[in-house]
Design a protein that fits this description.
Layout: H1 24-37, H2 53-63, H3 83-90, E1 120-129, E2 139-145, E3 157-161, E4 176-179, E5 193-199, E6 204-205, E7 210-211, H4 218-224, E8 231-238, E9 253-258, H5 263-274, H6 278-282, E10 287-293, H7 302-311, E11 316-322, H8 336-341, H9 344-352, E12 356-361, H10 365-380, H11 384-393, E13 397-401
Parallel strand pairs: 9-10, 9-12, 10-11, 12-13
Antiparallel strand pairs: 1-2, 1-8, 2-5, 3-4, 3-8, 6-7
């Protein structure tokens, strides 16, 4: 279901109402609302997940005519309705209201709309630990409500300014960048939220044999400790290097991540396979995801990957490098470069055919990756520097490390 009824005593927000004329789309929306809210009439009251009033009105005007007799919205005792679901009914269940025209045109990608001196204030919807008890550290998935006022594209980052000031000079904390872990439509597909994947940064003091709170990561701990309703000062969206080139729907994507570097790829995979987007409807290529983490408990979003793999076995591939559970061909720990190397011939052939390769994660991943690729090039009689130069020239090489 695209949405669910809320508690009967939930207060309505009266800032959004969509007037709809008669017709199949109107009837479809009304039927959904009746089931969810017990309402007789039309759509739609807004809860926190509804598109902003101006946007909702605009989209309604695009698909239906206004009718004067459709303004009575809810009967007594009806539950609040998440208007995103009603909008999907009006729109045929599609996520296409945040697309460029054509959808692959990147000339209008938003960049640095909000800056350090005038940041955007988002509100946390939820913060959830997403790793098991034996994971090396804590990683959280944080959903932030931006009310549709902070548009971004898959592959971009948000800046977060943690509250407070620096101890050393009393100045505000510097902005920290986090790759966005959702599509432009957000996890709820309303276009009102975005998600971050954040690992809590801690410092283990070998003398104390405990974490030293004085050396913990300021911003990551702030985010992982947030509760619903907490305000987050944000900048961006930042970056274009990790965008998906979607003009050719046959393009193969090779996505290599360590840890929370998985974030942008979650947006990619959801856009290409989970959501009803123009990109998903057109896509005929193969998206191949490599994720390196310490152990099975540290895997991120595995349930989502497995579902996509089951539904699209020819178009989505998945490989894990679990350094503390697997061995590479030399008998050592299985790191991300070792797993990629296992498929070197296939990957090189894909790149020769125009595939794009992405790397995201801690910057320490790249020396091992580059050493491995250089070794493969040597075995193939290829000049590594020239090969890499060619990939960069063709914009097939995408790196975002931190």
């Amino acid at each position: 279901a695209a949405f669910a009824p809320a508690a009967k005593n939930q207060a309505f927000r009266a800032d959004v109402s969509l007037d709809m004329a008669n017709g199949a789309k109107r009837k479809a929306a009304v039927e959904i609302i009746k089931k969810a809210a017990g309402a007789v009439g039309t759509v739609a009251l807004a809860t926190a997940a509804v598109p902003p009033a101006a946007f909702a009105a605009k989209k309604a005007a695009e698909v239906v005519e206004t009718a004067d007799n459709t303004k009575n919205i809810v009967t007594a005792g009806a539950a609040a309705v998440v208007a995103g679901g009603a909008f999907l009914a009006l729109n045929g269940g599609k996520q296409d209201f945040l697309e460029a025209d054509p959808y692959w045109d990147q000339s209008t990608v938003p960049v640095n709309v909000y800056k350090n001196k005038a940041p955007f204030t988002g509100k946390v919807v939820s913060t959830k630990r997403i790793v098991g008890p034996k994971a090396t550290g804590e990683t959280c998935h944080i959903v932030i409500d931006h009310k549709g006022d902070f548009p971004y594209w898959e592959g971009q980052s948000w800046g977060v300014i943690p509250p407070g000031v620096r101890e050393k000079d009393g100045k505000p904390h510097a902005v920290r960048l986090y790759s966005i872990a959702s599509t432009r439509y957000g996890d709820d597909m309303t276009g009102n939220t975005g998600s971050l994947c954040v690992r809590r940064a801690t410092y283990w003091d070998p003398e104390l044999k405990a974490d030293d709170p004085a050396k913990k990561g300021i911003c990551s701990n702030f985010l992982c400790d947030t509760e619903p309703g907490a305000e987050v000062q944000m900048t961006g969206p930042a970056g274009k290097v990790m965008l998906l080139p979607e003009e050719d729907p046959n393009t193969d994507y090779i996505m290599v991540a360590t840890g929370t570097g998985i974030a942008p790829y979650r947006g990619f995979v959801r856009r290409l396979f989970t959501e009803n987007t123009p990109a998903a409807n057109a896509y005929k290529g193969q998206a191949w995801l490599f994720l390196g983490v310490a152990n099975s408990d540290a895997l991120l979003y595995d349930d989502e990957w497995q579902e996509v793999k089951a539904n699209y076995p020819d178009n989505f591939r998945l490989d894990y490098a679990l350094s503390r559970e697997q061995e590479n061909k030399k008998g050592g720990k299985m790191y991300i470069q070792d797993k990629v190397e296992e498929y070197a011939d296939e990957i090189f052939n894909k790149l020769d055919g125009g595939a794009h390769i992405y790397f995201c994660g801690l910057k320490g991943m790249m020396p091992g990756i580059q050493e491995m690729l250089g070794s493969v090039c040597k075995d193939k009689g290829i000049n590594y520097d020239e090969w890499l130069k060619g990939l960069k020239k063709n914009k097939q090489w995408h790196v975002e490390v931190y």
